[in-house]
Write a structure and sequence with these properties.
binds thiamine diphosphate, alpha/beta, 814 residues, binds magnesium ion, 20 strands
Length: 814
């Protein structure tokens, strides 16, 4: 009977073979006529072959979740293939259309990727925050019937240069992180080069400082045995003092080179020489390559004896390109084996031509033994590892008593405060978080009601000392606000973790993160990452724009509306009025929970009939992916503006959500339409008034979501191009009756391109006003005038694109 170690050794070989073959197939065998470099990172993958074999086949349990280093994707897919969770077709199409993905992807891969990776550093931090979210969920009494999982990142050593990892590390320490493992693939190579000497010592110290266990896996079992031989101590010292560059170079050069070097440097004609000489070149190379990260017994033992209560960092010494001809070479990052090298690798692996994809080809143990083992692998025991949670019922309307003059930011605080009064499941599932701008983004009233989250209760000393304070800052396991330090990267990664809780923990959360609008840019890659893996959350960005007046250029956002327009997976809104905000938020909480499938065709359902389906409004919702759902970005303002007294009808609510409505419908002879977004509403209204005597039937279009409006328009065009002739988007219907000669002036406190496309919808001449240059301090009136978005600038733009008699209220522009 083969023991488990023998089986794991066989599987390790097979994993390495399959991953290498997958990459080779994509590069050399599959037609790739487009001349684009395919790549595939054979060396980078091989580095993790042993560690991942140990983890997936011997250590992981179904509840554990892993972020796999981007370039180890082929190893991951090979392992899933052996476990029957990945198809040969997808492996054959690796890096191709609908094939296994170059970097593990939750949304594009079919083999149950836990966390997407690709932009290095982000997946690592995601595991940390996922562990905190697991604690959050359990502290609230949910999901206790399931075992706690460990959140594990397989980290490249050069990946640790990414600062977001250290931001996360600090936050993890503050929040009492547990159940988190980071396994560092210490191959001492990055993309370009060999890493600095002694980096492991810095890491060790650093992780210990943040309360982590550090386990250094430097020597494999062959090395450990050799160190016990006479002369072994000398060998160990030599290894310890060998510079990274040299070690890598010798790994590449192989057994004879090791022999020469070791004899030259520590040969003593005695014990050490005997230790070297009694090994063949191949054995010597195997010994020197037998670093901790390539030694199954060492790895399995180290992983098995680590429990979850402290976070643990494993520094596993590895060889980049382990087992492959380019092993150790500093230029191997994107290196590929040549067909000739692959051929000798095939022979060495005993794989017959034509049997390259056979799971057990060339192995020495009987297939039944291996099959039996694979069928018992705990990781794959419970089938589908991705969990589901039913949607939380959301009120159709959110009520708030808005003051006569107020801002959207104040409205947001008031709406959440109202929700916070209730004891519904909806209120309980909301979790808020903010990077040290909780109070200044108006989450204060909500936090006062619902408390801050910590696994251990902490009293608010100001309160217990009876010192008056507006805010009750009490921490408890029941709290519903996660207070973060000032790191916007962390905000978006925790939102990513919270927003996947339904899938990871089987418990749905409704996460809301707040920050200042300009600082979205600070965490932008993490926001993109969160959207890419289809996490569901609401980002509330406030204050925004030059409307922030006195705060000046460093705090005033310009480009963010364009991010809102372009970011996939994120529906963006910028309402002007609190009743609009209430409608948008109610819709958003439901939208965040929809899951109509990731790959829904943009055009329409497959059963859509060209003539009837597009007659009603519903299909446009399909193009907008309303049934697919997504995350939401609300760009809010601190500017108090006079609210409109009106009834929020169902029709108006729908239009607000669809992206625009006529605040003042243009008459049949309309010469000018003003289309505005957000806090600039009073200027747009004022401009309409100033023009009224000199331009006929002026229209005022309130744009609540340039993003959704634009997406609908694009999708309708695409639908028509595919034969659905009646497809009409919301903006096309709104502009249908605007006469062709009419001009459109758009205005937003943000980049003008956000709305400039409106002119292309029905061919109206358009002038787009907005902010193109850094802001500065000043009063609101001064800044609006300076940047040309005040009422007078709107009127001047109208006069220039919709000529007629001079508009008498127009003043000369500064
Ligand atoms: C944010 C980001 N920047 C750059 C890259 C390009 N890149 C991919 S891997 C890599 C180096 C990785 O080195 P390491 O983490 O040590 O992994 P190894 O290849 O040694 O296994 C770089 C720079 C990336 N994927 N993401
Ligand atoms: Mg490396």
């Amino acid at each position: 009977m083969a023991n488990d170690l023998q089986i794991l050794r066989e599987l390790e070989k097979k994993v390495l073979w399959l991953a290498s073959w997958t990459i080779h197939n994509a590069n050399h065998l599959r037609a790739n006529d487009d001349g684009v470099k395919v790549g595939g990172h054979q060396a980078s993958s091989a580095s993790l072959a042993t560690i991942m074999t140990a983890l997936y086949f011997a250590v992981l349990r179904p509840q554990d979740r892993v972020a796999v280093k981007p370039h180890a994707s082929p190893i991951f897919h090979a392992i899933q293939y052996l476990l029957g969770r990945q198809t040969r077709e997808r492996l054959e199409a690796f890096r191709g259309y609908k094939g296994a993905q170059s970097y593990p992807s939750r949304t594009k891969d079919a083999d149950d990727v836990d966390f997407s990776t690709g932009s290095v550093g982000l997946g690592v931090a995601q595991t940390l925050f996922s562990s905190l979210v697991q604690d959050y969920v359990r502290a609230h009494g949910w999901g206790l019937d399931r075992p706690e999982g460990r959140m594990i990142a397989l980290v490249g050593d050069a990946e640790l240069d990414e600062g977001n990892i250290f931001e996360a590390l600090l936050e993890g320490w503050k929040q009492g992180l547990r159940n988190c493992w980071w396994v560092i693939d210490y191959n001492r190579q990055s993309l370009d080069a060999v890493v600095r000497e002694g980096l492991w010592e810095r890491y060790e110290q650093l992780f210990k400082n943040f309360g982590w266990n550090v386990v250094i896996l430097k020597y494999g079992s062959l090395q450990q045995a050799a160190f016990k031989e006479p002369g072994g101590e000398k060998l160990r010292d030599w290894i310890d003092n060998c510079p990274n560059q040299l070690y890598s170079a010798l790994v590449f050069a192989g057994g004879a080179a090791w022999r020469k070097r070791l004899n030259d440097e520590i040969g003593d004609q005695g014990d050490v020489s005997r230790l070297i000489e009694k090994r063949s070149d191949a054995e010597l190379a195997a010994l020197m390559n037998n670093l901790g990260g390539h030694d199954l017994p060492t790895l399995v033992e180290a992983f098995r004896k680590t429990d979850g209560d402290k976070p643990t960092c494993f520094i596993a010494y590895t060889v980049k390109g382990f087992g492959l001809p380019m092993a150790g070479h500093k230029d191997n990052h994107a290196g590929l084996m040549t067909p000739a090298q692959m051929e000798s690798f095939r022979q060495a692996m005993n794989v017959r031509p034509g049997h390259e994809w056979d799971a057990f080809e060339g192995l020495t143990l009987p297939a039944d033994t291996l099959k039996g083992f694979l069928a018992r692998v705990p990781f794959a025991a419970s089938g589908e590892r991705r969990l589901k949670a039913p949607p939380i019922e959301v009120p159709a309307e959110l009520k708030v008593a808005a003051q006569a003059v107020t801002s959207t930011q104040t409205g947001f605080g008031a709406l959440l405060n109202e929700i916070g009064r209730g004891d519904s499941d909806f209120a309980k599932r909301i979790v808020t978080t903010s990077p040290d701008v909780t109070v200044s983004t108006n989450l204060g009233p909500w936090v006062n009601r619902r408390g801050l989250f910590a696994r251990q209760a902490m009293a608010d000393t100001f309160k217990s000392e009876h010192i008056p304070s507006t805010f009750n800052w009490e921490f408890s396991p029941q709290g519903q606000h996660i207070e973060l330090g000032i790191a916007e990267m962390n905000l978006f990664i925790v939102l990513s973790a919270l927003g996947l809780s339904h899938s990871i923990n089987g418990e749905r959360l409704l996460p809301i993160g707040t920050l200042y609008d300009p600082f979205i840019a600070r965490g932008l890659d993490a926001l993109n990452y969160a959207c890419y893996q289809d996490a569901r959350f609401m980002v509330v960005a406030t204050p925004s724009g030059i409307t922030l007046a006195g705060e000046g250029g460093a705090h005033q956002s310009i480009a963010e509306p364009l991010i809102g327009l372009a970011q996939d997976g994120l529906a963006s809104f910028e309402p002007a009025y609190v009743d609009e905000l209430a409608a948008i938020m109610a819709w958003s909480f439901a939208y965040m929970q929809k899951s109509g499938g990731e790959d829904i065709s943009l055009v329409a359902r497959p059963d859509a009939k060209p003539d009837s389906t597009f007659a009603g409004r519903a299909p446009e919702r399909d193009w907008l992916r309303d049934e697919t759902g997504g995350s939401v970005y609300l760009r809010l303002s601190t500017r108090p503006i006079e609210q409109i007294k009106r009834q929020m009808t169902d029709e108006l609510r729908q239009q607000v959500v669809d992206g625009a409505y006529w605040m003042r419908k243009p008459g049949p002879n309309c010469q000018v339409v003003v289309a505005y977004t957000g806090a600039i509403a009073p200027e747009a209204i004022e401009a309409i008034g100033l023009m009224a005597e000199d331009r006929r039937d002026v229209g005022l279009l309130a744009v609540t979501s340039a993003d959704r409006l634009n997406a609908g328009w694009t999708a309708a065009q695409r639908a028509r191009e595919r034969g659905l002739v009646h497809a009409r988007s919301h903006i096309e219907r709104l502009l249908a009756d605007v006469p062709p000669h009419c001009g459109i002036v758009t205005v937003i406190d943000g980049h003008p391109a956000t709305l400039a496309w409106l002119g292309a919808v029905a061919g109206h001449r358009t002038r787009a006003l907005g902010v193109e240059h850094f802001g500065q301090t000043g009063s609101l009136a001064e800044l609006y005038r300076h940047y040309g978005i005040d009422a007078n600038a709107i009127v001047a733009a109208a006069q220039s694109i919709a000529p007629g008699r001079p508009i008498r209220h127009l003043k000369a522009l500064p």
